[in-house]
Amino acid sequence: ARRLGLDPAAPAHAVASLDGLPRVLAASALRGPAPVGGRLPAPEDPARAKPAAADTGPALPSGRVGVGPAVPVLELPGSWAAARTALRFTAEGTPHAPGPLVVYADELGGIGLLAELVVPGADPAPDVQALEAAVADAPWMLTTLHAVASTASLRGAAVEVNVHHSTLQDRLGHAEALLGWPVRTPQGRLRLQLALTMRHLGRQQVQ
């Protein structure tokens, strides 16, 4: 611990990035959890699609990062495993890969269990197959559905994708016909959130 510049009595985070190299940061080196803007959409906590790069703290590496929980030094292997799971939920934050650059494992809650169920490269679930077909139908589909899944209201989603509310409604009518379920009801929105998350996890290979 001391060779890493850590206080053995102080908590630390394991940090995972796409290069596969484990990193350890003292809990005091981070500014704190990412804001709501830095999370993937989850059924318990809808989120925004933009990464929270300005709020991740100077100690984190650039790019996509998973941060394990703060633990005593001897428990860092568990934090590392959690950080690698969190890394699978990160994204580039682009129209083709909407989502957060940084994900904190202890903010995933129950949605983190999906990482154990979704194996990259395996046959996708039927809802994910329907989502893939819908995304292939129109260039606006993925960003629009992500906005609906990750904002508090349809008007907020319209602002997110910079279209008029009536245009969003037209898009969603088309999307619902392709998906086979409504996305403007609480149950349908939850189903959409899960499908988006499973699609994302199925594409994430972590070293």
From TrEMBL:
Signal peptide per UniProt: none
Domain of life: Bacteria
PucR C-terminal helix-turn-helix domain location: 142-197
Pfam families documented for this protein: HTH_30
Region Disordered, residue ranges: 34-64
Gene3D superfamilies: PucR C-terminal helix-turn-helix domain
Name used for this protein in its record: PucR family transcriptional regulator
Species annotation: Streptomyces sp. SID12501
